[in-house]
Amino acid sequence: MNTTLQKMSRRTEPYILGAIIALSLLIQARSGQFFTGNNLVDLARSMTVPGLFAVGAMIVIVSGGIDVSFPAIASLSMYITTKILLAADYSGPVILAYIIGGVLGLLMGLFNGVLIGYFRFPTLVVTLGTSSLFIGIMQGVLAARELPVPPAMFDHGTAKLFSAYNTQLGLSSDMPVQILLLVAVLAVTAFLLRSTMLGRGIYAIGGDEVSAKRAGFNVFGTKMFIYGYVGVIAGIAGIARACMMRNAHPTNLQGIEMIIIAAVVLGGTRVTGGVGTLTGTMFGMALMTIMSNSLILLGIPTYWQKVFTGAIIIIGTGVSARQAMAKRAKPRKASPSPSKAPQSQEASK
Amino acid sequence: MSDYILDARGIRKSFGGVKALKGVDLSIRRGEIHCLAGENGCGKSTLIKVISGFYEADGGQFALDGESFTKIAPAEAIRRGLQVIYQDFSVFPNLSVMENLAFNMELMKGHRLVNRKRMRHIAEEAISRINFEVDLDERVENLPVADKQLIAISRALLYDARLIIMDEPTTALTKKEVRSLFDLIRKLQAQGISILFVSHKLDEVFEISEGYTILRNGQNVAHGDTKDLDAKKFAYHMTGREFAEETFQPQIVESNPVVSARGLSSYGAYSHVDFDLHPGEILGITGLLGSGRTELVQTLFGLQTHDEGQLLFEGKEVRFTNVKQAVEKGVGYVAEDRLTEGLFLPQSITLNTIVSHLDDLCSKTGFLDQSQVNTEVNHWIQELSVAASDPQQPVQTLSGGNQQKVVLARWLANDLKVLILNGPTVGVDIGSKYDIHSLLRRLAHAGLAIIVISDDLPEIRATCSRVLVMRDGSIIAEANPATTSEARLGELITGQA
Amino acid sequence: MTLLNEKQSPLARFVARDPNLFRLIIMLVAVFAVMGALRPTIFLRPSNLVSMAKQFPEYGIMAIGISICMITGGIDLAVVGTANLAAITTARFLIASVPKGSPGGYTLSMILMGILIALTVGALCGALSGWLISRFRIPPILATLGTHQLFTGLAIVITEGRPVSGLPILFSRLGNKTLAGFLPVPLLLYALAAIIIGIMLSKTRFGKQVYLVGTNATAARFAGLNVKNIIMRTYVTSGMLASLSGLIMMARVNSAKADYGASYTLQCVLIAVLGGVNPDGGFGTVGGVTVAVVILQLLSSGLNMFENVSNFYRDVIWGGVLITVLITNHYLTEHKRRKALKSASEGCGAPWGNLGGVAPPGST
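YS: structure for the whole thing
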């Protein structure tokens, strides 16, 4: 009864890919500059760090939570790491920076994990609190200010895979090596989510936590893992960011969390948990990045950027909300699910 | 080998100071379909949790498949052939049928990596045991409720189950689905599997079970062969009260109908429906889930609109496009699902009672008249004998029956002309059920027009003066419940002789 | 303090009715006492108290707005965007309509006009969020995230990202005035907003409807409430409160800009939660929110008195306080919770088995 085509049409990815293609073609038609090497490389560069964050944000949303603390974790890990390496006058390979950043991220993530997994506090509230805490530690206790990065991180930041030249405009763009980090995290996460019982457990918990417990999933352990893993991603994303910017700026990630979450939801991840794919997440992130990077190619002044971001969030989430509504309207009598129904923000028909 | 798959003796369990089980016995023979009955809170669930290893008993012991235990680990219980199918089926709506079927087994075996081939194999084996045909790659949320239950059952069978406990398995099922569930239960029995069927629905207990055990307040009150049981004894054991079988004889039925439907149709839900509802009568509407009965009454309440035909209210044509219009005309609706559609669970009895007529309790500027609110809420608590210590008490602390009374109070507090009840006593204990039935009769005698939607045929007999039978969106018959047998009504409903 | 001197029974009743508010008040008193004891000369100086009273209203009013939305089970992340857009519109209007050297009476009337314009902009912003949420059922967190971007974006487009300054002097003079030597205008505005919203939530039909919709929107619809309309009105209210905050901010810094107060959004959510607003909806009071705002203001002003402590410690304190309160509440209600949980698992077979904390009959 359900053909593959029908199943595909229920997914979000094809629609968002369509939107990306349409937008790209529009920009190409208007400017002739979209499908040029340097523009595509610039897009990849802009997407690297947000892409890492998006992977983490998606995992948390799939498990039924929401995490707004990753920019704070990234900033604090990045800042402490830079400070340590500067103080030690470190000149070895950059990998140590990633290790320190990752470990710091892990610790902060596990702190979230304990509050969420053990105490079962609402995830939004917990991560708001820890976010404030981490930022305060950085700016208050550590009196953070902008720092130059140590040589290893600087060199890593300027390293490139290749350069793309736009002969027409005389511009060139470097493909950052950090894109490999994104690819690696995507590969590891894809394996984790698809091929390990731990990963399936994340989906199971997002679908129905009580059932997950009864089925034999270790719910507490899985939650600790989720927030720890997401902490590690945030930590190394912070390092990658500092390297790419070639300085450690304590506050310039603030506020990015909401854009990332919006991109993840745009990519088909269900806000109530249980459903979401890496492909969709990357599509969502790409759409957001194209929108904010390419306005200039359309001849729109950059200060319109936020207006368009806002519009795309509203339209994108509006469309998926409508899809969900249509789906809910279809079965005459939905199965009673007392665990979720009373909380849902439902307006009259 | 012992004749009994399960033989529990003197099981005791208390929480804090509360004694949930005060020395309960439960014995199930091999291959027997046994019913465990009792009102909510009687200790049924606690007993199941002790046997399946989620709670440790304070005293007593039980033999499972011939082996004696005072406590058991959940995994050991499963090894001994015990499987529990929970009321919510414990499925993952967001995952595929295959994963739902295979996860438990994979986790039990300690596999850390996903092997889709192996999982598919497990899933195929699971569904083959009950000849269940389903697309293994479909997401469970897209399946009907009955299929979700079949997933839970076939998953349980993977473990060579010898005793399957089904906790209130029929709650979300239609009549037809219940029938096929019963067929399946009998097939399992034929394979030598014992079933413990937990229910408080009388007709189901009679139909399916061979032996029964009834608990009340954590104690055994009766057990034996189901064939020796009758409705009256059953109700008595469950509640400790005697109930007279009553029927409804309308006293003064006004000749002018308060609601009339003429050729009323809603595309895809019901078509060409005609009926009159008079003050003073209780009109039953029965039919299978999906017969259009819910959509029909929701039209009278403004939750849906009709596409064709006429709806007359006190002789004037109306078309309710929202609930408020219906409420203003004096229509009240007790919804099907009390917990999600009826009540504001963590809020007070007061708020739950006054929600639908805040307008009457407010000054023109929108300020609530607190003393009037208190007077009114206290009045209804007394009038309907709601067992509550304080009107500010959250309604979730009340029993199902008392919760339903709060919903009734909400509507009765309005100047009501028509009261529609969709499943008036679903999930309500027998005692409150009788209370609610006699309240409905009293209200009708006082001149209210009432519609009762129910597929509980004894309930229809106890309350209705006329009953309309709906099938596939049409009214196919009108019957007098006092003179029509339940069997005949059942035939009309399903269309099968 | 007067509360503790009252007779036992009303106090006990108060504690029983709202234990969270009671704990917050205790905390407030404790913070005040500690700060007063550590730095009596600075902390208790009237000028310090007045300056605290000037600082918290601008985010406190926003927090009240967010709280109402949270009580309906939603959230309004667009408050800061709304505040700035409203302030910028009013600033533009004032600059255009009041040339330098205009007579005082005329300026005052234009300022009143400007306030009306700000409130209208706030209401329209709220209406857009409310419309998206109620009509299209976009999850509130995303809808208001989108409208926040939109409003901030519009503010940037209008101002090209620059601050709007050159306001009539009278405006900031009015906004920073301290009446009778101890009552700053922002505090007066906060009190006004808190009292109006407090009464609205606790005493009026609309207030009850807000709590009911937040508890169970489906049941609200089945009970005949106009859910769409109620949600609309909450977001409109939140938008208007936000615009009022925007005006206070504008008076304080004597200009308007698209990115003022960017950190306020999350702080306001934090205040709401600390004040006992349930993020799932259905519960929360203006009283709780007010006490939470004051506690946080006392803490951060208190820290300012220590020369070697940076102002940024405030974030540590806020996060720390929130987590501490969560954990304390957790252990304080542990007993109660355990009992409820037990009863819930007890009733697992009953239809309400999944609604954690719901006691079935006979288990108590």
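YS: worth flagging: Chain B has two domains: 4-239, 259-494.
IM: good catch. Also The longest strand of chain B covers residues 4-15.
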